[in-house]
Design brief:
Helix content: 40-55%
Largest sheet: 7 strands, parallel
Number of helices: 17
Oligomer: single chain
């Protein structure tokens, strides 16, 4: 079978959870002997020169990317207040990308076109015009919910106003375009229920003509949970790497606003309580695009690492994993990675959302600063509890084997 992936950013290299989520499916399709074609968006934020990608991977995926200027310009953002369009969606509209997509669809007959995220939905009409493939929308999040949570948490009235505009225009777009694909592969049951509920209603908003997307008209849109998967069979625990004693760590892309918000909250409200109880603990903060303010000034015993060469090696070299997420949607890929590496993880209810975990069994969940600090101290003082959590974490990770997830997905889209 032939499958085309339309990616909202470069899935290779796997620099963050979104890249990993896309690439693990791409690699599984290759492993199964499918003809795979990747057409990705290239940008300054996630720039990759296609010729720098390993030749073997590029050959097996027929990898291409098209550069788009994703910079948010004040005047173009302001224009969206006047025309009612989503500033996040309009950034992904490119004449060059559409032109190359048309050429690809004319060259090859595809059985499945997988649209990675709502941001690539402006191209569904082009796909329909030049292909009769099954169109599967892979939703990594319910995008408008992320911005609603950010709006609700914002104390700055200007930020609240900006977040409200982003949330409302994204919601308007999402509620219309979810009627257009054949299938929606939601990353969690919570997200799937949102899509099922909204699909019962007809589109309620009048979109800008450039954003209008026709329904397929074939049949009602199917929705299923297609969770994030890992190639569990090829994950090594690297038992030769001993975690640093008395260490905590965070790792995540710091150009994603919910990650910035969560780390700032943790350092301001949780870390002082932890440090007071156990001053010997060190907290390592790693990730791309680390804010200069955090690099320049941070609390005692907090080590700002920045981007690391090997995320998995870094994770294995440290002790307790901290995921202090306050807003977001979908699932936190790094948590599933941490589970697969037998890590004891402390997170929030939002962080654990959509993942089959239970507080005190395979993860620790706490939403208030005092509760999270107590969970961290409780783990740091009790190696037996850490070991118990780690054992159950690895067992839970087996549910996220990409090979079984991919097989279930094929049944769902009718291509098994």
């Amino acid at each position: 079978m032939n499958i085309l992936f339309l990616c909202n950013k470069n899935p290779y290299p796997e620099k963050d959870g979104g890249c990993l989520c896309m690439n693990v499916f791409i690699k599984e399709a290759v492993r199964r002997g499918w003809y795979v074609k990747v057409l990705a968006v290239n940008s300054k934020k996630n720039f990759v020169n296609a010729v720098d990608i390993p030749e073997e991977y590029r050959g097996k995926t027929h990898y291409e990317n098209v550069f788009m200027d994703m910079t948010v310009k004040p005047w173009s953002f302001l224009a969206t207040y006047l025309n009612g369009r989503s500033p996040h969606i309009t950034r992904f509209i490119s004449v060059e990308y559409k032109k190359r997509l048309v050429e690809i669809l004319k060259e090859t007959k595809f059985d499945v076109v997988r649209i990675e995220s709502i941001f690539m939905m402006p191209y569904i009409d082009t796909v329909r015009e030049y292909s009769d493939a099954i169109v599967d929308l892979r939703t990594h999040n319910v995008e408008n919910l992320i911005w609603k949570r950010l709006r609700n948490a914002a104390a700055n009235p200007v930020k609240k106003l900006l977040y409200d505009h982003v949330a409302s225009t994204l919601e308007k777009y999402e509620l219309n375009v979810i009627h257009a694909p054949d299938c929606i592969s939601a990353i969690s049951e919570i997200d799937a229920e949102w899509f099922r509920e909204k699909l019962q209603d007809k589109p309620r908003f009048q979109l800008h003509p450039l954003d209008f997307v026709k329904s397929s008209g074939k049949h009602p849109v199917k929705v299923s949970v297609v969770p994030f998967g890992l190639d569990i069979q090829n994950i090594s625990l690297h038992e030769d790497i001993m975690p640093e004693p008395d260490s905590l760590f965070y790792i995540g892309a710091m150009n994603w606003i919910p990650n910035q918000e969560g780390v700032e909250w943790f350092l301001t409200h949780v870390w002082p309580l932890v440090h007071q109880k156990m001053p010997q603990l060190k907290f390592y903060v790693a990730g791309r695009n680390m804010p200069q303010s955090l690099i320049d000034s941070h609390p005692e015993n907090v080590v700002v690492v920045g981007e690391v060469d090997d995320a998995h090696e870094f994770m294995r070299s440290k002790g307790i994993m901290i995921v202090p997420l306050l807003s977001g949607s979908g699932v936190r890929v790094k948590i599933i990675e941490g589970l697969s590496m037998s890590k004891a993880i402390v997170t929030t209810s939002v962080g654990a959302e959509g993942i089959s975990v239970a507080d005190g069994h395979d993860i620790m969940i706490a939403d208030k600063p005092e509760e999270m600090a107590a969970s961290i101290v409780g783990l740091a003082e009790n190696p037996a509890l850490v070991k118990n959590i780690e054992t159950h974490a690895f067992e839970t990770a087996q549910r996220y084997d990409v090979r079984s997830i991919f097989s279930n997905w094929l049944e769902f889209i009718g291509r098994s």
